[in-house]
């Protein structure tokens, strides 16, 4: 007998083949029999979000914390209620990362709004990113995963912030919430020199569930790399940087991977991006970083892209 999970897998297969209406219909049918099922609700929410129906999507999106993936997280088990977005001027609210770095960068724009509504706002970020996120708002206390947790009254997964603020495309907060460190920008501007400069990122985290759909072999960018009058720079952490050795000898890409070996990897990356004219990237944390800095970015997306990039058009509402 087919299970709910089997039906969800069928809906995912329908989505990945571009049959979005059929996938949404399948998920709707499941929810008529099992209302509020966490996995089905989450998948249905992403369908609604991808076509821009944000307000209808958010209640379903919030139910994702009942999925097994979330229930195993220590942050999901914190013994305090979830913050619902309402003003709590006497409360301490802890906002913690729950997915990848790109997701956290995308949602960091909400943190000044959190600080506006609560007495004390604490932001828990990925290890090695405290310096980067400390540029958002002086009112925030920035902790890294693994740091001792202070006392707090409410908490929330960062990726739930768009939902609790009842975001619609027209009310998405400005993306440019991060800043590069000026001394580093000056250093890299001198080091990179003149010319039209383009940064490249072609490989994401190999452990990502859909990495095969988003990462691309560097050799496929050869036609781009042969465009005259352009200087190309690899903004590619390991292991993707090894692909530079596979390029023809007459193609020059300046490798900056050693600069990204810093424990605070996104700090030098932010400074370098500020010195570039364009970033070309797959759907990765680097693309989100460039967007949050207000840099021009071209993102190479899979045939079926993540919901935040929408299904039509050349620009996402999440970044300028």
Structural summary, described in words:
The protein has 320 residues and is an alpha/beta fold. It contains 14 helices and 9 strands. The strands form 2 sheets. A 5-stranded parallel β-sheet has the order 7-6-5-8-9, covered by helices on one side. A 4-stranded parallel β-sheet has the order 3-2-1-4.
Helices and strands: which structural class?
alpha/beta
Q: Characterize the main sheet.
A: 5 strands, parallel
Number of strands: 9
Order of helices and strands: HHHHHEHHEHEEHHEHHEEHEHE
Shape: globular
Indicate the radius of gyration in whole angstroms.
21 Å
Number of helices: 14
End-to-end distance: 48 Å
Q: Fraction of residues in helices?
A: 25-40%
Major β-sheet strand ordering: 7-6-5-8-9
Q: Spans of 5+ residues with little confidence (pLDDT < 50)? A: none
Strand content: 15-25%
Give the overall average pLDDT.
93
From the structure above, extract its key features.
35% helix, 9 strands, five-stranded parallel beta sheet, alpha/beta, single chain, 15% strand, four-stranded parallel beta sheet, 320 residues, 14 helices
Short account of what is shown:
This protein is of the alpha/beta class and 320 residues long. It has helices at 4-16, 20-33, 38-50, 54-62, 68-71, 101-107, 111-117, 130-133, 161-164, 182-192, 211-214, 222-225, 266-274, 285-292, and strands at residues 88-96, 118-125, 141-144, 154-157, 196-201, 230-234, 253-255, 278-282, 297-300. β2 (118-125), α8 (130-133) and β3 (141-144) form a beta-alpha-beta unit.
List the helices and strands and how they pair.
Blueprint lengths: L3 H13 L3 H14 L4 H13 L3 H9 L5 H4 L16 E9 L4 H7 L3 H7 E8 L4 H4 L7 E4 L9 E4 L3 H4 L17 H11 L3 E6 L9 H4 L7 H4 L4 E5 L18 E3 L10 H9 L3 E5 L2 H8 L4 E4 L20
Parallel strand pairs: 1-2, 1-4, 2-3, 5-6, 5-8, 6-7, 8-9
Helix pairs in contact: 1-2, 2-3, 3-4, 6-14, 10-13
């Amino acid at each position: 007998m087919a299970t709910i999970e089997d039906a969800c897998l069928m809906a995912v297969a329908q989505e990945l083949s571009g049959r979005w209406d059929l996938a949404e219909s399948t998920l709707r049918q499941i929810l008529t029999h099992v209302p509020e099922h966490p996995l089905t609700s989450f998948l249905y929410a992403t369908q609604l979000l991808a076509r821009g129906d944000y307000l209808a999507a958010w209640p379903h999106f919030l139910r994702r914390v009942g999925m097994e993936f979330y229930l195993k997280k220590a942050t999901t088990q914190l013994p305090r209620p979830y913050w619902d977005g309402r003003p709590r001027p006497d409360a301490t609210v802890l906002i913690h990362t729950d997915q990848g770095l790109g997701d956290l960068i995308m949602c960091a724009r909400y943190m000044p709004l959190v600080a506006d509504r609560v007495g004390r706002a604490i932001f828990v970020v990925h290890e090695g990113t405290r310096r980067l996120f400390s540029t958002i708002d002086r009112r925030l206390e920035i902790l890294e995963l693994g740091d001792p947790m202070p006392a707090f009254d409410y908490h929330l997964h960062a990726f739930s912030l768009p939902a609790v603020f009842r975001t619609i495309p027209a009310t998405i907060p400005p993306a440019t919430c991060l800043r590069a460190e000026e001394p580093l920008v000056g250093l890299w501007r001198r080091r990179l020199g003149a010319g039209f400069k383009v940064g490249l990122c072609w490989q994401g985290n190999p452990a990502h569930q859909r990495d095969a759909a988003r990462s691309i072999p560097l050799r496929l960018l050869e036609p781009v790399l042969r465009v005259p009058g352009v200087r190309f720079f690899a903004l590619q952490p390991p292991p993707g940087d090894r692909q530079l050795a596979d390029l023809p000898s007459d193609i020059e890409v300046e490798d900056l991977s050693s600069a990204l070996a810093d424990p605070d990897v996104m700090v030098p990356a932010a400074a370098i991006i500020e010195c570039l004219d364009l970033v070309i990237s797959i759907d990765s944390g680097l693309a989100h970083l460039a967007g949050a800095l207000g840099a021009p970015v071209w993102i190479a997306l899979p045939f079926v892209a993540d919901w935040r990039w929408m299904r039509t058009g050349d620009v996402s509402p999440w970044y300028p």
